[in-house]
Amino acid sequence: MVYRVGLGRSRHPSPLTSPAWSLLPSSPVQWRRAGAAALPEGSAVWQGALVLPHASLATAGTYSCHGEDGGLLHAVSLQLGYLPGVPFVSCRASDYENFSCSWTSSVETFLPTRYITTYRKKSLTGEEKRRNKNGHMGPCLQDPSRPGTCTVHGSEFWSSYRLNITEVNPLGSSFRLLDITMQAIIKPDPPEGLVVEPIPLAPRRLHVSWKYPSSWPKEPHFQLRFRLQYRPVIHRSWSVVETVNLSEVITDAFAGLEHVVQVSAKDFLDAGNWSEWSAEARATPVRDPATVASEETTTDTSLESLAEEPSQAPNPEPINHSDPLEKTAVLVSLGIFAFFVLAAVLVITILIWLRVRKHGKDKTKPHNFLVAATHLKALPKAQIL
């Protein structure tokens, strides 16, 4: 026989009773614990019953009742524990067709515990209400290989659900109701197949590609977007880029330095949360040929200097991380700028010349006017004569 007693629920001790006294009322009995005569401190035998006034977890064990001759009359196994507490529950959907929930007990009961897991769809269509007046209910299926988890299959992305997780032990039960929506708990698995490769003749570039997580169904109306984080292994801060593509070119990598790259995913319409970061992938951009030649020259010069006079000073020559494409872009920009400057100077020169010319014409106009006026004034006199 097994007795399970709750701790901290009653101020009065409950005795462990045995049929030995009722069967043999005239015979004294003896209680033993685990076969030994020593009993927990404060225990007493009253009318054949063993009383444990200060029961605790240490009091648990197997107790046996023996007759006057030492023969076994009865045995009982005592287990002590607590009522279940309200469990902690969280849910997550790795795709838009299923969701899983996990839970942990809020109280260590020290007793055998089981869980009853069910769900109910909150928003029902007219057809669903006609089919099932009690609403769409079903079990959240538990997987024995993953204790503390259950899964609801065939869920709908735009629907709401109420989950019931009930914790049960021999002393009683306690439950948690959790309302969830698929849009809020969607969290894809990390992208897979991350590959990082250097690009030939591009010292500051790395090509990164990846695949959708295998758990995410490939449907045109449920897409994912991605974010990429990368850094040189010798640095701590990350650079982050977002994209909707399955590949990206890093354009500001450090030539000759190994880089670490990770990628994560999220629903395209920004529902739910970002996935965890994928496993790391690493690659090193190719080195700039000009930089390699410069370093070789610097190394030769340093070796010659060391042969003449040893020195512990580091080489101050900076590593050139410039990109040939960037140099070409700079030269083109400078050429365009010079063209506009020359055009502006030419326009200003033409304007100044036109203004000077106009000013010269204005100076000659008063003289011609006076000559014409004198001629007109003298003309009438000549006619009178």
TrEMBL record:
What InterPro entries does the database record attribute to this sequence? FN3_dom, FN3_IL27B_N, FN3_sf, Hematopoietin_rcpt_L_F3_CS, Ig-like_fold, IL11/IL27_subunit_beta
GO CC, any one term: membrane
Q: Where in the cell is it found?
A: Membrane
How the protein sits in the membrane?
Single-pass type I membrane protein
So where does this one cross the membrane?
329-354
What's the chief localization of this chain? Answer: membrane
Pfam family, any one: FN3_IL27B_N
Q: Which domain of life is it from?
A: Eukaryota
Q: Where is the composition biased (Low complexity)?
A: 293-309
Q: Which residues form the signal peptide?
A: none
For the region Disordered, what residue ranges are annotated? Answer: 280-321
Where is each Fibronectin type-III domain found? 190-287
| A GO molecular-function descriptor | cytokine receptor activity
Q: Which UniProt keywords apply?
A: Disulfide bond, Glycoprotein, Immunoglobulin domain, Membrane, Receptor, Repeat, Signal, Transmembrane, Transmembrane helix
Q: Which family does it belong to?
A: Belongs to the type I cytokine receptor family. Type 3 subfamily.
Q: What is this protein called?
A: Interleukin 11 receptor subunit alpha
Biological source species:
Aquila chrysaetos chrysaetos
What's the name of its gene?
A: IL11RA
